[in-house]
């Protein structure tokens, strides 16, 4: 394996900052980045990146499309259109947005667990996956601080992988 194909670490605070600067949209790129790195380090796919990309794309398109349409209708001031479309559009926006948020926390919990499993299996490092999951959920409640936490854990795994392969 050459040095160029080794995964690269990211600054956890930079990832967190980009998350807030892009109103959460960076998280979806970040999810794919993490998944590709874990698949590479594991040597076999944990999850299929193309399927995850399609699921994120559909949910993101549905949410952003319905949210933008919702805003246009509300700001247009056309009460007749609003009365006929908003009862359908509002729940679609709420459901798709909630699905994205719930999917994000489930995915990050899954990734944190997988990082611990890979660390233990490949590098014989003792980990505590249950404590890691509890920490992830607590940090989710605290302004999405699970993002730098997860990036830090991934960076540690990448550094172990680089040390092991050089």
Keywords:
mainly alpha, 6 helices, elongated, 166 residues
Radius of gyration: 19 Å
Largest sheet: none
Mean pLDDT: 85
Proportion of beta-strand residues: under 5%
Structural class: mainly alpha
Characterise the protein shown here.
With 166 residues, the protein is mostly helical. It has one domain (3-165). Helix content is 80%, strand content 0%. The chain is built from 6 helices and no strands. The chain has helices at residues 12-21, 26-42, 49-76, 79-123, 129-141, 146-165. The longest helix has 45 residues, at 79-123.
Short description:
With 166 residues, the chain is an all-alpha fold.
Topology record:
Layout: H1 12-21, H2 26-42, H3 49-76, H4 79-123, H5 129-141, H6 146-165
């Amino acid at each position: 394996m050459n040095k160029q194909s080794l995964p690269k670490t990211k600054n956890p605070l930079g990832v967190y900052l980009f998350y807030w600067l892009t109103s959460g949209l960076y998280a979806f790129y970040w999810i794919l980045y993490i998944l590709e790195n874990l698949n590479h380090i594991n040597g076999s796919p944990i999850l299929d990146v193309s399927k995850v990309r399609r699921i994120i794309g559909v949910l993101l398109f549905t949410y952003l499309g319905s949210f933008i349409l919702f805003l246009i209708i509300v700001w247009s001031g056309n009460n007749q259109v609003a009365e006929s479309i908003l009862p359908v559009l509002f729940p679609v926006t709420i459901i798709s947005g909630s699905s994205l948020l719930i999917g994000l926390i489930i995915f990050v919990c899954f990734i944190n667990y997988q990082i611990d499993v890979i660390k233990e299996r490949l590098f014989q490092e003792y980990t505590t996956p249950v404590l890691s999951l509890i920490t992830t959920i607590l940090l989710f409640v605290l302004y999405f601080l699970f993002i730098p936490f997860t990036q830090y854990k991934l960076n540690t795994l990448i550094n172990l992988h680089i040390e092991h392969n050089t």
